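Ticket #4471: structure export looks truncated?
Reporter: QA, pipeline team
Priority: medium

Steps to reproduce: submit the single chain below to the structure queue and open the exported record.
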Amino acid sequence: MRVLGIDPGFDRTGWGVIEDTGGRLTYVECGCIQTSAKDEYTQRLQAIRDGVQDVINRFKPDAFAIEKLFFQTNAKTAIKVGEARGIALLVAADAGVPIVEPTPNQVKSGTTGQGNAEKKQVQDMVMRLLKLSSVPKPDDAADALAIAIVGATLFSSRR
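Actual output as written to the record:
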């Protein structure tokens, strides 16, 4: 099963694709959809839509995992991230790709075994679980791979 993980963001949306073959995880590719603060608000949303569509078209995932939002103290930031997340969800739904939405604690626990793990611990485990020589960069891409890893587990448990 091919899983696309998305770490939603308005400035940068991380994405990561893995293969899960009976519990054996393999890295496929990862990256970021970067928007420019110089662009109009709607152009930035379009860039996120187009970027997620491109990744889905290129990698043809069997499953789509996107992290649920956690509470943020900055409401303006939370709203923009929520809108970026909504765009990504809509693109996946339009493509007919089944969706799971792990929480940040599920992602931490699913990769490290600890729901309160630090970001570095999660990234180190992504590197180990996918047998990579270094932590993927930028951080958003590494986070998206962690979301894909946990998404694969959640999809497997549905079967």
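Status: closed, not a bug. The export was complete when the record was re-opened. Leaving a note from the reviewer for reference: The chain has a mean pLDDT of 93.
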